[in-house]
Amino acid sequence: xxxxxxxxxxxxxxxxxxxxxxxxxxxxxxxxxxxxxxxxxxxxxxxxxxxxxxxxxxxxxxxxxxxxxxxxxxxxxxxxxxxxxxxxxxxxxxxxxxxxxxxxxxxxxxxxxxxxxxxxxxxxxxxxxxxxxxxxxxxxxxxxxxxxxxxxxxxxxxxxxxxxxxxxxxxxxxxxxxxxxxxxxxxxxxxxxxxxxxxxxxxxxxxxxxxxxxxxxxxxxxxxxxxxxxxxxxxxxxxxxxxxxxxxxxxxxxxxxxxxxxxxxxxxxxxxxxxxxxxxxxxxxxxxxxxxxxxxxxxxxxxxxxxxxxxxxxxxxxxxxxxxxxxxxxxxxxxxxxxxxxxxxxxxxxxxxxxxxxxxxxxxxxxxxxxxxxxxxxxxxxxxxxxxxxxxxxxx
Length: 396
Ligand SMILES: *Cc1c(COP(=O)(O)O)cnc(C)c1O
Description:
Strand content: 15-25%
Number of strands: 14
Bound molecules: pyridoxal-5'-phosphate
CATH class of the largest domain: Alpha Beta
Shape: globular
Order of helices and strands: HEEHHEHEHEHEHHEHEHHEHEEEHEHHEH
CATH topology of the largest domain: Rossmann fold
């Protein structure tokens, strides 16, 4: 019973992996439990976050956007973290853990290449060998990030199976890990996968929420009415939610990718689409997955690569079930509107992923009239300029 509770969030989560991978998950859990309370490990981790990543990241008041929408809006600026997004927090945490475990190699999956770049960066900094699995479809459409990873000394391994995208890259990385557990750590990029990943990734990302809570109390002398974050696998959202989880009055709102709209069935809204999104097992975890009536994984679509994933981290399924958090979505179109508005009004070009959280606030601003709101700006939009220009019909 004890193990059951530790591995699960309510009925979600677990360790649904082949027997051959169980020892690796167990070893990782033990190492994580040891390190997370270890003074030396935490000193090293926080030193890197401060001096290398540039934390704490700012909490920026948006005066123009606030006036426009009739509420008081602050952005938690993960776009200012080294490499341009929150992913580096987790990559450094796990790379450091790999080193403490005596491993010499890290592997990772990547879709758009953001997690691949974060992992390659952490591996370069900490002196680890790094192989990144990436679908060939993604390699073709994300060339700048492929180049970045190579510059950082990583090896990019093309994945030719399945849809040749993120979910196939995860499958290949899990296979590699099974065969090379001795010297290799699988550095998973979001709060998903088998235990202990969802718990561990949330732990390394919880720095976002810890900082944001402290900052808002210092500036405003009160807690926010709501905290809003986009949800792909769910790591930036769970990271900021952790800081406010015990403040029962603070509303926690996750925003999924609505793609072309729910009825189009071309989206990544695992919670919002009741016909396709239901609990199932994928990548070692029991959680909400987009699937057809036979349980086959449904192909997702989003203008933002980072939200374009068929499942959601199990803790989000749980937070939704117990009604501690609520989940909604923004469409591609709404996201692009927010992308433009935030750029023009505040001088901040957001990642298309983060723009979903802003879009939700714009769409629902009447609900938040005169309220204090924090939006987690998970990353910067430089990586997205080609896609955005194409979508907006602007020639570069
Ligand atoms: C990868 C990414 C996301 C989505 O991942 P989560 O694990 O859901 O946070 C969101 N924003 C940015 C900028 C990303 O790079």
